[in-house]
Amino acid sequence: MGKNKAVFVCKECGYESNRWLGKCPSCGAWNSFVEYNEKKKGKGNGGFKFDVSTPPTPLDKIDFKSVKRFETKIGEFDRVLGGGIVPGAVILIGGEPGIGKSTLLLQVSYKLAKMGSRVLYSTSEESLQQISLRANRLNAVSGDILLSSEYSVNKIIKYAEDVKPGVLIVDSIQTIYDEDTDAQQGSVTGIKACTSKLIRFAKATNTPVFVVGHVTKGGIVAGPKILEHMVDAVIYLEGDGNRGYRILRNAKNRYGSTDEIGLFEMHSDGLREVNDPTEIFLTRETESISGSVLTVTIEGSRPLLLEIQAIAAETKYGVPQRSVNGPEYKRVTTLIAVLEKRLHLFLGNQDIFLNVVGGLKIRDPGIDAAILMAIYSSYSSKVIRKDTVFIGEVGLGGELRAVEGMKRRADEAIRFGIKNIVIPYYIKENIESSKAKIMKCKNVSSIMEYLRDV
Ligand SMILES: Nc1ncnc2c1ncn2[C@@H]1O[C@H](COP(=O)(O)OP(=O)(O)OP(=O)(O)O)[C@@H](O)[C@H]1O
Ligand SMILES: [Mg+2]
């Protein structure tokens, strides 16, 4: 009897090792290795017949023009996919439980059905009545959406072969299994096996497949991260559960940029597209308060006016706390060090809380100046007027540096009636406006001088 090859796989990044490791050498995660047993059952592969192998073909003989994306006409969704769905693509939709993955896919199904495409929606999580209830609530009932409740990947593919849908949706990958392996439902092996079958089906029949994967608050439950390597695109639905906003973000895309985000608002009749995104990221409060500062970031191709809020309060017990929601933690601690060193503020006895309104996760260095000003404003109780924005990256020497898209950022601020725009001194673009005062500052000290005058 041949020995089965057992390997261990990191749940976070998919790194494989032939022994169990406490810490992943690839991504550094602790206790993330699970056994991955590649043992096959003796029965063969259940009649699974999709074979995507092709003999070597000259590249210039391949007709790429016949690959046509199709739009769902949900603009925010198409944008994130890079302009629409590519036939044969396998797209993973991840997100925390209850964030609205099934809702979004049902709405997408309905749009596609209305345009004459047939959708096979295979669920292994809910009963057909539950989905029908949701579809009625969302006004997304159509005879061209075919529902099936199925746990076996082979059967799902069998149904898809019979129905020949324009799009196949599998909700969710963690709750289906492959009877050709011994793997348990939701285990790394099971998820890999099911996904690879779905991928082979997609490629062989040119059917786009959407696969739902759950992500929990504490990290990732056996699955999605490993799947990221296998599928063509990974989109995550994120959001601030309480406020009803949802952000669709592309983490990987073999057919387009990953910079775009889609914005939605959850209502009782489903996810609605947000057409003027900037409104989400501002508090409705028009009165200026200390610690609250505006900036403009760029997400994908879109400039967004954002509000950064900070509180600096004297530490009552032990070590000062730093709590950051939105920007990178390290970035904020670096900016705190810049405030201490360059502006001589003493923040070592201050708890600092920093928040981006709307819950957006931001990696853009262009908001540095605003983060710095928000902390400064709260610490010194100096109110910064709501008609002022700060744009620019802050260097360790306190210098203000230009970032990508300065003009587009300034234009967005002006569109929202901002009257004072603080930008770096050295910029390539020519930013001038009759509607706003443009203040060019070389470093954080010159921003302070400017603030003294207003
Ligand atoms: N009647 C309603 N009115 C408003 N919003 C609702 C209503 N019913 C459900 N929702 C919203 O829909 C969300 C659930 O959506 P959905 O079931 O699509 O999420 P999911 O990501 O698929 O969840 P799961 O992980 O459980 O599959 C709820 O968290 C809530 O925000
Ligand atoms: Mg669901």
From TrEMBL:
ATP binds at G95, E96, P97, G98, I99, G100, K101, S102. It holds the Pfam family Zn_ribbon_LapB. Residues 66-215 form the RecA family profile domain. Keywords: ATP-binding, DNA damage, DNA repair, DNA-binding, Hydrolase, Metal-binding, Nucleotide-binding, Stress response, Zinc, Zinc-finger. GO terms for molecular function: ATP binding; ATP-dependent DNA damage sensor activity; damaged DNA binding; hydrolase activity; zinc ion binding. Signal peptide: none annotated. GO terms for biological process: recombinational repair. Residues 351-454 are annotated as: Lon-protease-like. GO terms for cellular component: cytosol. A motif (RadA KNRFG motif) lies at residues 252-256. Belongs to the RecA family. RadA subfamily. The middle region has homology to RecA with ATPase motifs including the RadA KNRFG motif, while the C-terminus is homologous to Lon protease. DNA-dependent ATPase involved in processing of recombination intermediates, plays a role in repairing DNA breaks. Stimulates the branch migration of RecA-mediated strand transfer reactions, allowing the 3' invading strand to extend heteroduplex DNA faster. Binds ssDNA in the presence of ADP but not other nucleotides, has ATPase activity that is stimulated by ssDNA and various branched DNA structures, but inhibited by SSB. Does not have RecA's homology-searching function. Plays a role in repairing double-strand DNA breaks, probably involving stabilizing or processing branched DNA or blocked replication forks. This is DNA repair protein RadA. It comes from candidate division TA06 bacterium. The gene is radA.
